Amino acid sequence: MKLILTVFLFIFNLTLSAQSNQFAGDYTRSLSAEGKHIIEYKLTLNQDGTFEFHYYTKLQGGSPPEVNKYGKGKWSVKDNMITFSANKKEDIDDKYTLDFNKSTARFVTKNPRDKSDKVVKTKLQFLESEIFWMKRIDIFKV
């Protein structure tokens, strides 16, 4: 009986780690206008359920001309929906100022049953966020 229970728990843990492998990784998006303006989003979802985010802008004539903003915290998945959270005491400080609480993103990839030649880039599409400029942003898996 112990052997059966051990095997069951082992298979269950493999399934959980395989699902998080699908989502974990680096995501990025870069928008630019021929050397005038640059906006970059970089998000890393780690295997251990933590994330780091970096937002960079360089706007010609902007005040300030360059901005770096950072965020970090934890992420979890349920049905291709990723929920982000940040502990205000541990994850938010002088460097990491972005609060990702109440942020959700949809994981979008090509359906495995779709046998067409259509190319669908794997991405995260932010649906909700208290960071106003994060709503409806798509960032693509590298």
Automatic annotation (TrEMBL):
Domain of life: Bacteria
Pfam families linked: NlpE
Keyword hit for Signal: yes
Gene3D superfamilies to which the protein is assigned, alphabetical: 2.40.128.300
Membrane-crossing segments per the record: none
Position of the signal peptide: 1-18
Keywords: Signal
Matching InterPro entries: Cu-R_lipoprotein_NlpE, NlpE_N_sf
Signal found in the keyword field: yes
Name of the featured protein: Copper resistance protein NlpE
Species in which this protein is naturally found: Flavobacterium piscisymbiosum
